[in-house]
Amino acid sequence: MSSVKEFIAQFDDHNPDWSQAPEGFPHCDLAGLSSSEVGTFLRTKTVWELSRPERPPQRSRVWQDPEGYRYLVQWSNTVLLRYLVRLETDALPKSEYRRKAQVDDAARSTVRNIEEGYKRATTREYLDFIGYSQGSLEEVRGDVRELTEDGLLASRPESSLGKIGIDLGELHRALQGSKGQHRTAEATDGAKGDYRGIEEDREGSGAQKRTGSGRTVRCFEKDFSYRPLTILYPPLTKITANDLSYEIFFELINKTDWLLRKLVASLEKKLDGEQKWYQIEQARIRDKFRKK
């Protein structure tokens, strides 16, 4: 690795060799350079900027649906885990308030990290946040084990999610279908107001009618009203803290952990493909400069 002066003196615009660039290039200390040397450095920096390939487009990060994480089984599983954890911790003695806060926070983090990671700009960041979710899930696993060791959570070897009426597939479909249900509304031509998010029914089911003030059409608009988890998936209303056990929690944690590992493998494969594309593009640009 050469100094800044040596690098710009030996630099060949037609056959750039960036392996000899000084440490920190292009963010180098220019103290001690003459005005002409600074000009040469800036020209070299321009060549460097032009020779860099564009980053590959992050197709999976340009989402059609801002809440696309709802289509992940991993997400619906962690939502259920957080709900069951709250059922259990609400039944803990008041003296266990610190443990309750810690377990609740770990369960919450498993959900939030999936959601936040989905909104990140790059696959690398998404992968990092899935890793944070895995870490929080492991924290919940340890907390469940300690709750059982301390006699605060029962162990019933024959218990399972199915025996308390929970079907993870049905839960996933229920949460996936809860995104902005459609409802009908009416709007009149020429009326003042904001009708963003309202679509005119053009398939004939919303009959049009004329009034003295204008044409009224039946429209669809998204209904984002809050719906409790117990309404979206009614079997949860019948579950109490007494129904929960070490085995039920570990069944859910193990299934979720496996699904998260599958998601990580998929994202790593995608990231590897993006990096290979980037390396090929760099080689293509280097070859283009050599031919000049």
Automatic annotation (TrEMBL):
Stretches the record annotates as Disordered: 176-214
Basic and acidic residues biased stretches: 183-199
One Pfam family per UniProt: 23S_rRNA_IVP
InterPro entries attached to this UniProt entry: 23S_rRNA-intervening_sequence, 23S_rRNA_IVS_sf
Protein name: Four helix bundle protein
Source organism: Candidatus Uhrbacteria bacterium RIFCSPLOWO2_02_FULL_49_11
Lineage: Bacteria, Candidatus Uhriibacteriota
